[in-house]
Every structure is written in C-alpha cells, then in structure tokens.
Automatic annotation (TrEMBL):
Name of the gene this protein is made from: LRRC69
Highest taxon, organism lineage: Eukaryota
Keywords: Leucine-rich repeat, Repeat
InterPro entries found in the cross-reference section: Leu-rich_rpt, Leu-rich_rpt_typical-subtyp, LRR_dom_sf, LRR_domain-containing
Protein name: Leucine rich repeat containing 69
Keyword field contains Transit peptide: no
GO biological processes: intracellular signal transduction
Entry keyword annotation includes Repeat: yes
Amino acid sequence: MGERLLLRALRSGKSRTVILRGKKLQCIPQTLAKLSLLRVLDLRDNLISHLGPGFSSLTQLAVLNLGNNIFREVPKELKCLKSLQILHLFGNKITTISPEVFDGLDNLILLNLNNNKLACLPPQVCRLKNLKFMSLNYNQLASIPRELCSLKKLSELHVLHNQLTALPEEIRFLTNLGKLILARNQIKELPDGLCRLRKLKILDLAGNQIHVFPSAMQELQLQELYCEENPLLQKRPLYATQIEEVWTLKEITARFIMDQLDENDSVIKNSIKYYPEARNMLSQGKECPVCGKHFLSIWLECVYFQTPNQNMKISKNANCLPIKTLLCSYTCFKNRGPGIYGIV
C-alpha cells in the first residue's frame, strides 16, 4: 500500500507532501529517496526502527513525523536534513541521542520527544540555535543540561513527568522563555535565575517537592502559576536556624567593603576595579530586609507570605505564596516585622 502511494507521488514529479500514517510499515520505502522536492513526510503510527541511507537525500524536507514507531535512538541520518524545521519523535523507545545528530539541524524550530525513555540529553543540544519549542514529557530525565540554557530563541519548554530534582542556575539565560512546564517531577528548590525570566508568563510546578519560592519570585510577571500538590510552607510561626554561627574573616571583610561601596566610598570603588575575582564575589552579596546591611554567605533563612496578583490564574492552594528571605543575623531576626517567619 505504501509503495503504491509513493509511485503515485513519483509520477506527479512535484509532490511535496507524503502521508503514510498507520500503514504498518517496518522500513522506509526505497522509492522515497527519489522525492527530492519533498517538504512534509508523515510516517506516524508504523513499526519503523531505522532510516535507510537514502533518507539523507531528502534535503528539502521541512516537517517530519516519526511518532509512535519503535526507534531506540534518534536516527543519525537526520543530521543531513538541513531544511528540517519540525521533528516529531514522540511515542518511541528512544533511550539515547547521539551528539552528532544535532550537527545539521540548524533550522529546527520544534522538537517533540514525548513518551520515550530518555535518561539524559547530550550537551550538544546547544547546537539547535533556532529551536523555539521543545517537549520532553514522560521521559526519565534526572537533570536538564546547562548547555540547553544557551538556546536563546526557546519560548516553550515542557518537561512534564520526569525525574528532575533541580534546575540549573543557567536557566536565567533562556531570555525568550514564555512557558515552562515542570509538573510531576521531584524538584525541591527553584534557582534564583528562574526569577530573571522577564518573558515567562506560564509556570507549572504542580506535583513537586517545593516548600518555598525564591526571594525574587515577585519579580516574575506571570499570568498563570500552578503549584498544587507541593508541600508549600503554611503561614504559622517557625524557628530560624543559622547556617554558621561564627563569621569568617572573608565574611567580615566582604560586609565591610559592601557597606562602604553602598556609601559611595570613592577609594574602595576605584580600588575594586583592579580585582575582578573580588568584584565577582561581592556581586553575589545580599541585602538584609531588616537592617539594610549587606552580607555574603552567612544568614538566617526566613519566609514571608505574598498575596498573588489578582489577575494571575493560580492554583487554589496558593492564596499566599511562601517567599524566601534572608536575614543577616539573629539580631535582625529578633527585630524583624510581624510578616517574617523563621524556617527550621
């Protein structure tokens, strides 16, 4: 049946779309390689496990659907498809991706790898410079490679139902990300870098292990936030535990310098220009919300509860969002306002 459809396409000489969905194909028909002008190829719902060598001749192909077949790895022949923009590989048995696959997919915009058995992504995913939509739902990913965060054009990332425990701090570089789906993972803490995604509008964190949100969470301009089935902190008094009780010489020096810089001390401002390592270290400093003084790495972790924006669509359990805040000392903890609670 598949061969007859292809012969019909060959006779026309200018066929740009071939749909062979659900034809029980076990291999790619050889005559397919002769359709050099082919733009759209749908081979979904078959029994294909590999692509033949002639497949690489389809250099004009823009849309390829290989969903619901029996591939165990992403076919290496795909790297020859220089015009490919949309690639569906959902519902296969893919466990690995060869790094070389990404070499020729410069024009890829959409990649769908849902419902596979991927445990990791190769760092070479960063070569998909034009990728805008990536879906990795229902896999076995334990982490997101930081290299993925260099995909500047990525606007949607779906990683539903995986095994993520954390996100890379480099996620802040996904500056065009508008939709991030992380539901049903094992994430315990969100990185501060997430709060720097100014275009993020939809964030789904349902079914994770999150207790408290990052301190800069209120800077996000979200339209939708889903966080049900997380052990979010409730609004009740707790105790604060200090990470370290004795200040190090590094901490004392850093606090002094940051306070002087805050007061526009010209001598220190001019001097610090010549010490890039010290400048980088001081850039990680934090400001105490109680006394306004700066500190580097010794703090008490506390929480305050923020009422979400009324225009934002949000989970029913999130009437007050627990937001992390850091105090510089027990003295400030004792002098804190009534809205700040300690965390054990």
